[in-house]
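Box 4.2: Ligand-aware structure prediction
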Amino acid sequence: MAESTGTPTPRPSSSVKLVLLGEAAVGKSSLVMRFVNNDFQENKEPTIGAAFLTQKCNLPNRTIKFEIWDTAGQERFASLAPMYYRNAQAALVVYDITKPQSLTKAQHWVAELQRQASPGIVIALVGNKADLASPGSFPAPGDDADGVEANADAEQDESDARKVPTREAKAYAEEEGLLFYETSAKTGQYVAEVFTAIAHAIPESSLKGPRGVGGQTNLGRDDGARVNLAGPRETGPKEGCAC
Amino acid sequence: DRYGFKKSNQYISKAEYDAWNTNYTQYIERRRKKWYALMRAYGLMTDDPIRFPPKSEKVKRYVRKGIPPEWRGAAWFWYAGGPGRLARMQGVYWELVRRCEKPEDEGGLNDADREHIERDLHRTFPDNISFKPDPPTTPLSSPESSPESWPDPPDPPILNSLRRVLRAFALHNPQIGYCQSLNFIAGLLLLFLKSDEEKAFILLDVITSVHLPGTHARVLEANVDIGVLMDLLREHLPAVWNRIDDGDPADLNPAPGKRGAPGLGPAQPRLPTVSLATTPWFMSLFIGTLPIESTLRVWDSLFYEGSKTLFRVSLAIFKLGEPSIRAIEDPMEVFQVVQTLPRKMLDVNMLMEACWKRKGFGSVNQELIDERR
Ligand SMILES: Nc1nc2c(ncn2[C@@H]2O[C@H](COP(=O)(O)OP(=O)(O)O)[C@@H](O)[C@H]2O)c(=O)[nH]1
Ligand SMILES: [Mg+2]
């Protein structure tokens, strides 16, 4: 699947180990499934232990091969987590925008990663299930931050299941220097963007080509600390990842 | 398929399934005739039997070759010592079900377990007909929204049974509570026990106390089983072991629990990254790992012979997968190969042969497993 989209151009390619963390049922596996297979399943079965998948992501001047470790979310599996995030260059910490508790859990994961994982790890905080929020509170591309905040604060109509205001999660992400997105694995909204942003944010120095291909320069590494509220553009990224 | 699951998936095409199924259906028919003869020889009923022949070499062979599908649940229950346990636990299950209704401080189930069970209920075999909401419900209100807004669900009866069994189990086993993967195990039990909740409850108890002690506990000991498997792999399939062993001595990762017993050899067994792929082999008893028919055949032997079955099957998977594993060039692919291997193993007869061959893993007996755990 991932192979089929590759162009024959010999772009330098490097692999990036990425781990997904977050409470059970926030949609980690669904995000991966959307990213890798461009598919979504209602009532996705829980992940037991972990699953491993790969997907390529084509940037303008290089190819990133993500080695994705999707983990089980239930508390008791947490003891296995260090085996997954050891040596990871990137982490997607996921919460569910309809479950405040899941953001708290996500914050614990962030803290643990900052303490225990590789120092240069790129962390993205992802609020999933954005489709369950009423349209007004979903940050549309091009909205400036104030607009989003105003919307998030607005009186909730009954179709809006959002419990975590964008503003709150975003402020936290900014403070900790995390990438930040609100996604929907169901609609595909911003899913590819998260991975593309991570690919951009991986510092050159930590890229090791799988077969000894050295890193190229060109990509800004300063992306790493910047908060990206809404993705660069509409869904269906042009350069983006193979999905 | 014959159990209400989907025939094909990402790993097995419809054509592959059909090709296998034609022969296998005949195989089941042949085995069924043999079982009927066996039952008659022991003077046992063949119509919805609850009693089965006493254990013997011959019966063991019969079980290894597969119990007739319609008798499976009953035979599992029988050989796992279910009737005796049931007699000892008369009424316990329904009492637990009643207690589950109460708030936690009055002896009921805690909210966390309750919520986790609820969350996974609809995520249990969503593709099986018995677990699907009955009529094709036109989802006017989105069914996947947050629990608060869940409409009183038109749950199929088996989901209500599953909810009760998981809740009662969690209440009865506070050191385990609810652990993801128990939903699958209990679900499959119910499917084959014709939704007899009490029996499913008892078998769940057997599995988590006899066959997989500690594996699902709140302080997860799943790595204990995996550590034992990795030891066995190193001894029995060194060529495979060499391919998957990526541990650098710096991060020896002693599993929690009762490891480190003397006599395991000089090196503390370390867990290679690949071992993570085997977590669900144990925790879910191969559900979702092996194709369903293969899973059921493993369970036949598991309930008859004990947990050594799980280790032998695991070794057999690695054995059958040895060529693919040795063919790998990029070490990063090892994990994917090991993860995918069992999902394609439709030919359960071949798997079981590899598993039980004397010269193969004959020395992997129950005493050895118990000792190494
Ligand atoms: N509405 C909605 N549901 C989702 C979304 N992502 C996942 N889900 C559902 O949430 C449940 C849990 O998803 P899963 O990917 O298994 O979560 P995980 O435990 O974090 O891996 C499943 O029933 C999914 O169908 C989303 O973006 N929107
Ligand atoms: Mg998952």
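In the box above, the bound molecule is magnesium ion. Helices of chain A lie at 28-37, 81-85, 100-116, 145-153, 166-176, 191-201.
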